[in-house]
Amino acid sequence: MPRNYDIAELRRLDIAHHLPAQADWQEIEDLGGSRIITHADGCYIHDGDGNRILDGMAGLWCVNVGYGRDELAEVAREQMLELPYYNSFFKTANAPAILLAEKIASLTGGRLPHVFFNSSGSEANDTILRMVRHYWQVKGEHSRTIVISRHNAYHGSTVAGVSMGGMKVMHGQGFPAPGILPMAGIEHVRQPYWYNEGRDMTPEDFGTACAQAIEDKILEVGPENVAAFIGEPVQGAGGVIIPPANYWPQVEAICRKYGILLVCDEVICGFGRTGNIWGHETVGVKPDIIAMAKGLSSGYLPISAVAVSAEIVQVIKTGGDFVHGYTYSGHPVASAVALRNIEIMEREGLFEKVRNETGPYLAEKLATLRDHPLVGEARSVGLLGAVEVVADKATGARFGGAEGTAGPMVRDICIRNGLMVRGIRDSIVMCPPLIITPSQIDDLIGIIR
Ligand code: PLP
């Protein structure tokens, strides 16, 4: 049972001492402090005011197996008592990290057999940036340093993550500090966001135009200078941007044409979210490197991983030390929890359930929102969905102009009505736990309507 917290006192301390992530601190103070989440079970979170809220976001896109899993707590306890910590710096390793690496490799069908651990999605992408640049250095193609990414991509909050990300607001736009972010050597191209940017074309033509933008950028900067292209199979934090079906295969062909490494950021899309184990399977490409986090441990402990092709590792092995790593790389407790979490997802058939049952059901239910006067588009892939809120259905005009403001407003109304969703510009996005039932999907869609 939850502890009996003094919620008013916690709110006071929250304002006095605690700085929440990705937040307007003055706004939170004006609101009298944060909403205090006290406990959670299954698909529901509970707050200090006694509200039970259906978690349509799986925390922050991560609690795939839902809340309250005893066996994850048990496995953490056992591992903490046996070996709470040891690293892989001193030519050492630990059993959970090795076994988890093997498990992840097998989930890639053996295509990406080598795994490097970190604690967060941002760190995974930092690892990737250093790894792809190092790979080309060792290989002797010293000019290949540029990484190409997309506008509105999200690859994390560290300096490298923000830089590879394409969110202008995170690059500091609007404040007088030009030239600091994004860091040098990162180039951004247009995003495959058909509803916002491509409605004057067919989705196919738009998909081709967006892939072409990547080739144009490669030619502009010189193919001999490009190390990698990185993209989320489906852009999550950008607003659940599901690309036209012909986009990713063309992106892969372009990368292969110029010998550029293809990196997929699977931090949201991995572990069943889009109806396959990996998002890159859903969009039909075979990357050289993938980043994963979130669903890897269902958020029970922080852990992320980078899975890498044999070819890349072979090259790096000829170059001596890869001088990169974190204190918590291969953390035994986080690894043990992740391993058991994957076992749960497999045992309960959650990947298949998303593909065959709950994913199609969410799509069917989202389609029923399309007749709503404020809904411009409702889309999903697996259990990742978005509703575009519009002021004028015919023209697609937004409430707050081009950037939009309706999403956060609708989100607040949803929360007051017992549903946690996210508002991103003028869209509402959802990413519920993979254990969500059809009747809970009915509740989710009902509250949004
Ligand atoms: N990459 C993607 C696609 C993400 O969605 C996120 C977080 O939302 C990250 C990277 C960063 O992960 P973290 O917040 O664990 O650093």
Automatic annotation (TrEMBL):
Keywords: Aminotransferase, Pyridoxal phosphate, Transferase. The keyword Transferase applies. The keyword Chaperone does not apply. Its EC number is 2.6.1.-. It is an enzyme of class 2 (transferase). InterPro entries: Aminotrans_3, Aminotrans_3_PPA_site, PyrdxlP-dep_Trfase, PyrdxlP-dep_Trfase_major, PyrdxlP-dep_Trfase_small. GO terms for molecular function: pyridoxal phosphate binding; transaminase activity. Its cofactor is pyridoxal 5'-phosphate. Belongs to the class-III pyridoxal-phosphate-dependent aminotransferase family. This is Putrescine aminotransferase. It comes from Sphingorhabdus rigui.
